[in-house]
Amino acid sequence: MSSISVLGEDEVSSFFESSPPLKNMEEIVHKLNGFIQLNSTGGRRIVCVTSGGTTVPLEQRCVRYIDNFSSGNRGAASTENFVKAGYAVIFLFRRGTCQPYCRSLPDDPFLECFQFPDNTNIRVHASHAEAVKMAVMDQQAAVAEARLLKLPFTTIYEYLQMLRLIATAMKDVGPCSMFYLAAAVSDFYVPWKSMVEHKIESGSGPLDIRLAQVPKMLSILRTNWAPKAFCISFKLETDSKILIEKATKALQKYKVHAVVANELSTRKEEVVVVSSSGNVVVRCNSEKPESIVEDNLIRLIVDRHSTYIKEFGT
Ligand code: PMT
Prior knowledge:
The protein is of the alpha/beta class and about 325 residues long.
């Protein structure tokens, strides 16, 4: 079998060729290059954290779409921990999902945090004052120190094009770069050219749609886009009996450095880091009520990344 068919390069090329182009590509490239240059010349490690689920539009002027579940909590909490560990983070996130530094805020912060003592003033409600202060200060500090670059996506088309742009832009950062792929990425899609333009009409019985397979980008990312980067992928299952087996297969198949395996209902309490050096169960600290699984997970990943950089000899 040739390397082309192993990697599915033909499928990948045709996916990108048939994708609607990114609307603001030049602006994204400009932001990315500035952020990467600033941080890599300062010797800082850079991680791309992907977060939230991708959508698959069913119509070009999209009214209906298929979605992949992810609240974005994992990606947001991991981003905070990477920044704390000294990394610069490119946060590639689904619009409308959980954002870094916002976990302590109520669900609807604008409506619940603020009050109007009179017509000209706006005030933070005393019960939320500390949470709002910390969220605003931490986020502003991360952005001002060029530690956080946020790039939003919605569709699978946007996500994969942006991931490729980021990987290409980070190529020269080599082993000091990392991909932490926590986004829930569509496995099936409607190719743009075979998609209807206008809203699908209802009233004529059941709807038949043929979905094509989205090429797995992990192989291409590892082999072509960013071969020297440290790469962490995720495996989500709802059946715990097959989780570790699936994660182990993904580790071998895509040659990533570790796979974070999680089961949907327990994902906030426990994950298993599957790698060639064995499987490590990571949980939150039971003695600390405010502790989250990402505190220990990112500590472990950062340690593994340090070892990788040393082995690389930089
Ligand atoms: O956001 P939360 O609510 O906090 O939940 C976090 C999470 C459960 C979403 C997260 O921890 C997680 O597991 N994310 C990955 C979910 C997923 O899509 O798993 P998968 O088995 O379908 O994909 C496995 C890997 O293949 C992923 O790293 C993905 O980036 C990659 N992939 C997937 C599809 C595709 N076409 N190409 C890919 O490269």
